[in-house]
Amino acid sequence: MPGPLHGVLVADFSRVLAGPYATMLLADLGADVVKVESPHGDDTRHWRPPLRGDVSTYYLAVNRNKRSVVLDLTDPDDLVLAHGLADRADVLIQNFRPGALRRFGLDHDTATARNARLVYASISGFGAAGGADLPGYDLMAQAAAGLMSLTGAADGPPVKAGVAVLDVIAGLHAALGILAALRHRESTGRGQHVTVDLLSSALSGLVNHASAHVAGGVVPHRMGNAHPSIVPYEPLPTADGELVVIAANDGQFRTLCRVLGVPELATDPRFRGNADRTAHRDELRPLLVAALSRRGSARWFGELRAAGVPCSPINSVAEGVALAEGLGLDPVVTVGGVPGIRHPIGLSDSPPSYDLPPPGLDAHGPELRAWLAGD
């Protein structure tokens, strides 16, 4: 069954993570994504190890369901083909530094003057105004936005997130913006410029922490694994390890206390309501730890899960994938012998499809160049 984006042609001039992640999501939903690469190839082809065979697993993570063509924009003949692709495309996405594509005639104004229906998506690190000169690396944005100031032990240094989370958020925002612009085009016949930057995506992704500052006048700070507004909401030690334990409302806290064998804590005036528990977190935590110390994490996980208390063991990535498999989520799909993580969105009538493995450099070059040349 054709995907919901069947017939949408995406000219993908992006590299590394945010753009390729966005276009892979679109490709899984049926869009025809043409990945335009320089002769050097996408940078992530060279970010190794880890490897599958001799291919970077970083590259494999975000490039399935695409066709690759090498076009050297400094070569006049290749540039003509690049213009032809932009002229035919429904969507063009790029993450060059703001203004860098102007000299090639592939900037928004020039491309849309030739193709008024084009949805043109630009991803940058810090926008096209005052931050146009700043490269768009995830770690820079984590530092600049304040995310690192919130990550790590309370008495330790700032720490980056373990994954390039802002690239992923920006990629999601880009895909959402593209879909909105395509919907708008249905009624107007015209494309528009979709702009996404890592810093804005970061501030949006900081959600309650950003709101604490702009709405509450508070500057959030590192709290380790604790939560500023919910207690308990953190890993707690058990007899043989740690278990994430959450009581996001008073009912969950009462159930937690009952299962742990300390029901009196739920009626203690210091802990009766969430605001009380937040104010007295330093008094509550050792009492919960003492109760949890009587059994191991696996035993508590089973009992708390059965009672409806949110909790989880702290898994490795391998254990996380195994858990998803055990829960029937089928997290892994294999395309052309290359395993990857399944598209996260389920659609009952037009589900994602997996037709092409991540392409080798210029794997579809001859056919795409012939098509663009009109042969």
List the helices and strands and how they pair.
Elements: E1 9-13, H1 18-28, E2 32-37, E3 51-52, E4 55-56, H2 57-61, E5 66-70, H3 76-88, E6 91-94, H4 108-114, E7 119-124, H5 138-145, H6 165-188, E8 193-197, H7 198-205, H8 207-214, E9 233-237, E10 242-246, H9 250-260, H10 274-279, H11 281-292, H12 297-307, E11 311-313, H13 317-326, E12 332-335, E13 338-341, H14 365-372
Parallel strand pairs: 1-2, 1-6, 2-5, 6-7, 7-8
Antiparallel strand pairs: 3-4, 9-10, 10-11, 12-13
Outline the structure in words.
There is one protein chain. The chain is an alpha/beta fold and 375 residues long. The protein has two domains: 240 residues, 3-Layer(aba) Sandwich (Rossmann fold); 83 residues, formyl-coa transferase, domain 3 (2-Layer Sandwich). The protein contains 14 helices and 13 strands. It has a six-stranded parallel beta sheet, sandwiched between helices. Strand 3 and strand 4 form a beta hairpin. The protein is elongated. The mean pLDDT is 97. This is Crotonobetainyl-CoA:carnitine CoA-transferase CaiB. Pfam families: CoA_transf_3 (PF02515). It comes from Micromonospora sediminicola. GO terms for molecular function: CoA-transferase activity. Keywords: Transferase.
